[in-house]
Amino acid sequence: MPRLGQGYVWQDLQVGQCFRTFRRTVTETDLVNFIGVTGMLEAIFIEDGYEGAAMAGRPVPGALTYSLIEGLILQTMIQGTGLAMLELQQKIFAPVVVGDTVHAVIEVTAIRPTSRSGRAVVSSRIDVWNQKQQLVMSYLAKRLLAGRDPR
């Protein structure tokens, strides 16, 4: 019986295939919880209106934006099928601040089956956009994904 919410096995993906995630608004609570658990207690993140800030608003660490997007991907695309993150190359193009709403477009760029257990290394490009349709982050990811159960 199919399981609701199950992610894609690598055989269900094709090079060039694209997906768009749901959107997620970054909240003050997200920022406070993230910097608290990671120890990223920089003044620009903990002090509203910090004098030395290079920009207006409450900036959030790029790592928080990345984590929120990975959460959206995990909950939908790779739930139960993602086995490991193998490689990550990331570029940040614009800041994200509390109140911004982000989403991502994922493009499958390569699929390389492994010799073990029907698994494959799936490469993808993930572009992260804000509510103004501005590209804020882009990263390349290589993940180990499960294959279809041969039983």
From TrEMBL:
Classification via InterPro entries: HotDog_dom_sf, MCH/BMMD
Protein name as annotated: Acyl dehydratase
Native source organism of the sequence: Comamonas antarctica
